[in-house]
Amino acid sequence: MSKGLFANWRFRTAYPSFEPGQELEVYLTGFDEASGKGEARIGDTILEVEGVGGGQVDSLVVIRVESFDKPSHRGAARAAD
Amino acid sequence: MNQPESTEQAPATRTTIEFRGGKALSALPILFFIVWAIFQSGLLGISATGGLIVGMLVGLILGMLFVKGDWKGYADTVFEGMAQPVAVTAIVAWLWAGMFAGTLQVGAFVDGLGWLAVAAGIGPLLFPAITFLLAALLATGIGTGYGTVIAFVALFFPAGVALGADPILMFGAILSGAVFGDNLAPVSDTTIVSAVTQDSDVGGVVASRFKYAIIAAVLSLIAYLVASAMFSGSTIAPEVAEAFRERTNPAGLLHLVSMGVVIFTAIAGRHIIEAISWGLIAAILINLIFGLAPGTDMLVFNVAEGGWAAETFGGWPLVEVVAAGNAGVGGSLHDGALGFAELAVLILLVIAGAQIMMRGGAFHALEDWLLRTVAKTVRSAEVVMVTVTASINAAITINTAAQIAVAPYIATIGKRFNINGYRRANILDANTSALGYIFPWAGGVLVGYTQMVALVEQYDWFTSDMVVAPIQAWPWVFHGWLLVIVFLVSAWTGFGREYTTDRLSNRSNES
Lengths: 81, 511
What we know:
The complex is a heterodimer. By secondary structure, chain A is mostly beta strands. Chain A has strands at 23-27, 30-32, 37-42, 45-50, 60-69, 74-79. The radius of gyration of chain A is 14 Å and the shape is globular. By secondary structure, chain B is mostly helical. In chain B, helix 10 (202-230) packs parallel to helix 21 and helix 19 (378-396) packs parallel to helix 21. Chain B has a three-stranded mixed beta sheet with strand order 2-1-3. The chains are: A mainly beta, B mainly alpha. Chain A binds chain B through residues 2-14, 16, 18, 24-27, 29, 40-44, 58, 60, and chain B through 207-208, 210-211, 377-379, 412, 415-419, 493-504, 508, 511.
């Protein structure tokens, strides 16, 4: 799908969806010290990530999606082992 | 061009100079230069590069007056900017391409192209469109847009104008071809910088940017055909066109071999200096062996008559005895390289001004503000990435330098939305490539203008009213404008967008 000169001739949504159990490698885009949870923003979709530290913001982390609510484009994920 | 070493230059993210009146004042030298350039070339109609040098010098002096404390840091930053590899890389490309194009010129390559155009029935209607296509191919092959502009203004431009094509449209088509090549060529320095700074592999960025480039190119090609039909009135006198037709000469096409040597050597991965040097050697040999140009057309020592040197060396190869007032060195190697001396000085000064803007913090303040207040959604973030890249390039004028300056911010903004490395690299490169060949103070436009002025002395039929002033070219660089528009539309609609969850670019995968 993604290789070659004629790949990705498509319009990609601002709100990508994910399925529970899906493993993703993403940049951690934020961290809330108060809750101890990180945030991975993919386009305008937001995943709340547990099991990560503030020092990992702007770094690639591997996460597993635990739940995802399509209407609100939000979900929860945990750092994969 | 083939200069991956330039990518090792660390982006200037450190603020080291404080200005009275705040960080914005560090943009004063560059902004003063742009205003000067618009006033001089736009309003007064003076296109002289020497005048722009004074504008940049005065801008640098004015900026210094607003520095807090010791002025030594400011002076050091001027040197720091001028010593960057990006500026030197551009200058080296001009010198080599200048010698090469000049040597093909004296070897009747233009007459050969004219013969081919007449034989193939290519008239003024098709010439700009075909020029765009061929310039795009050459630039993609050799990876240097500047070198392509020099070669095409020296060779295709006079042939097209002599056959009745509109000079402004021809210049626009050549600049468009250079944009295409700088954007897409795997060996272009902008391609390499965009890939390296966005954690991507060169092959991946080239494949993924093809869709944007080809959409803009197809639209540009149509636009050149339509515009040629609209500019149907020839600007050249019929007797001049007829004289050019009579002197067309298929033998000049032997220099297709010289160009082929450059293209294939560059594609084989050799450094652009090496590639053009081999092409130059081939061109000199072809000129001499086939009698297309005598040695003195390529290099001549003009010795003043009546002196010891004239008596001793008169009659030697490459030596001619001339009236005292005409003594000097000449020939295509000399004229081709030296034509860019003033522009080389200007570019060094512009890069110095850009460095002041970065070290003074104006650039970072703007970027931080955009990230905080404008880039709220992935769509607005991408639009910001496109517009900021384009605007910074419009100010810094040398596209590789602008790219290195803006690259860390494109990476930061893009990663905040998990936009993958290929997409970030494509936004970065397309918009720096495009704007470097549009505005009248841009390096690509000035380099073409410099070469064009030299045509007046080269050909007796080429008059100064056929020279396209830098201020005239900007609306006609169709591929440049269309590439920016394609990216604005892509940012808005999500066309071609990729997230890190779709695929990771190869280098970030490895890290």
